[in-house]
């Protein structure tokens, strides 16, 4: 197999680190306490809605989390919010102000311009598809396109002018920005230093756009920015990031076991659910058998998108965000511990310059080098490090712990069958 022990080794070829599999386990362990607190809190809240059909100490039925693949739990945000009285629904505010998705894209472009990044080219506005069109069959998973002629860059997605659309436009415009920055390179060098870095830049920009200060500036948040508003905001972001992180880990574990032959075809589905139960604390809504193939519900598995890219991008986007905050002098760890979430990088040319420099390399240098060069001394220990992600969510983590303790909520879940 071209020198690879099995296909899982082939998928790891971008990662020169020989202990990458061990490291991924380590990252997963680091995120576990936060996930368990979030899971416990969500389960206790869902029990208030659905009653005893959800066990107090067992896995959560996967269909109750507001998303068909149970990867992003944002759909249950409204019924599980920490402080409903302090909540302002971004989707509702966008609707009331009659935003269209292209108006949101204009906001995203203004955000890029404020960082002194490039404006979106004419083709982007003229040829992108932002909403599902009825005159053709479309794959709705968003994608960004560089037509490699130095002029034509487009986005294709089926978005709505709501919170999800706001997040997606800010994320995907980050990809177009990456294309624009490395345009002067030879065509062979025109791609990001790694897929994960490409994705993480979009992720970092969308995290930045969700800062309450920025939403307030846009007239999309009217309340007071206080502890309650902060916890609500962190909670909603955590619902879209932390369960996804865990789900990507399960998808990776399953895929590697399949590729190495450890999981045999006759056990594909049962082994899938064992992993889901062990790492995500979820269970299927109805009994499953080997006639089903539930991993096929995960986009990355069915479409062959690199799962490792998404997993590492989740970590890296918080490192990039933290660095942008430091560069914008909006955040200093020694002055204000645990306030990473309140940084607002809008109009920081220094942050934009640093990001631009990183993107300008294209793939002319290894991604580890590019990232190390971008990160300042505060984050230099490793090119991948979940510290920034944990720091970002620390205020929420503390809040969840207290809340779960106060209400006597069981943290963790009983596992019915051990994974091999
Ligand atoms: Zn992306």
Automatic annotation (TrEMBL):
The catalytic activity of this protein is classed by the Enzyme Commission as 3.4.-.-
Biological processes, Gene Ontology terms: proteolysis
Q: Which residues does the annotation say bind chloride?
A: 15
* Keywords from the named record: Carboxypeptidase, Disulfide bond, Glycoprotein, Hydrolase, Metal-binding, Metalloprotease, Protease, Signal, Zinc
**Using the chain's own numbering, where are the disulfide bonds?**
140-158, 325-343
The keyword Protease appears for this protein: yes
The broad enzyme category this protein falls into is: hydrolase
Please list the residues that bind Zn(2+) 1: 171, 175
Write out the GO MF terms.
carboxypeptidase activity; metal ion binding; metallopeptidase activity; peptidyl-dipeptidase activity
The answer, when asked if Secreted is one of the entry's keywords, is no
State the needed cofactors, names only. Answer: Zn(2+)
Question: What cellular component GO annotations does this protein have?
Answer: extracellular space; plasma membrane
The cofactor note reads: Binds 1 zinc ion per subunit.
- List positions binding Zn(2+) 2: 171, 175
What family is reported? Answer: Belongs to the peptidase M2 family.
* Listed name of the protein: Angiotensin-converting enzyme
**What organism is the protein native to?**
Callosobruchus maculatus
User: What does the record give as the organism's lineage?
Assistant: Eukaryota, Metazoa, Ecdysozoa, Arthropoda, Hexapoda
């Amino acid at each position: 197999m071209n020198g690879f022990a099995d296909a899982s080794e082939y998928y790891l070829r971008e990662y020169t680190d020989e202990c990458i599999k061990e490291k991924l386990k380590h990252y997963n362990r680091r995120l576990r306490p936060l996930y368990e607190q979030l899971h416990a809190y969500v389960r206790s809240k869902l029990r208030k809605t659905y009653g005893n059909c959800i066990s107090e100490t067992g896995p959560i039925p996967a269909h109750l989390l507001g998303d068909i693949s149970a990867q992003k739990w944002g759909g249950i945000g409204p019924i599980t919010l920490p402080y409903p009285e302090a909540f302002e629904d971004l989707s509702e505010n966008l609707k009331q102000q009659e935003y269209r998705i292209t108006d949101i894209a204009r906001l995203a472009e203004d955000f890029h311009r404020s960082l002194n990044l490039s404006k979106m080219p004419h083709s982007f506005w003229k040829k992108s598809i932002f909403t599902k069109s009825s005159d053709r069959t479309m794959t709705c998973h968003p994608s960004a396109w560089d037509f490699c002629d130095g002029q034509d860059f487009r986005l294709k997605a089926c978005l709505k002018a709501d919170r999800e659309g706001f997040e997606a436009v800010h994320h995907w415009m980050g990809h177009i920005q990456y294309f624009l920055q490395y345009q002067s390179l030879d065509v062979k060098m025109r791609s990001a230093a790694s897929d994960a870095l490409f994705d993480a830049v979009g992720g970092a920009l969308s995290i930045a756009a969700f800062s309450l200060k920025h939403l307030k500036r846009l007239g999309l948040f009217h309340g007071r920015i206080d502890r309650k508003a902060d916890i609500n905001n962190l909670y909603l972001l955590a619902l879209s990031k932390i369960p996804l992180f865990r789900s990507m880990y399960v998808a990776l574990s399953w895929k590697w076991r399949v590729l190495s032959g450890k999981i045999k075809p006759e056990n594909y589905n049962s082994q899938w659910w064992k992993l889901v139960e062990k790492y995500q604390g979820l269970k299927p809504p109805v009994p499953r058998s080997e006639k089903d193939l539930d991993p096929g519900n995960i986009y990355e598995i069915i479409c062959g998108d690199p799962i490792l890219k998404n997993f590492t991008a989740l970590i890296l986007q918080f490192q990039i965000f933290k660095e942008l905050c430091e560069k914008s002098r909006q955040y200093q760890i020694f002055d204000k511990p645990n306030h990473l979430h309140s940084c607002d990088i809008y109009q920081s040319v220094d942050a934009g310059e640093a990001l631009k420099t990183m993107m300008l390399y294209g793939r002319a240098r290894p991604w580890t080098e590019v990232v190390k060069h971008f990160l300042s001394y505060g984050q230099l220990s490793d090119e991948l490090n979940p510290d920034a992600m944990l720091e970002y969510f620390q205020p929420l983590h503390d809040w969840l712990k207290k809340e779960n303790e106060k209400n006597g909520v069981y943290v963790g879940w009983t596992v019915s069958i051990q994974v091999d």
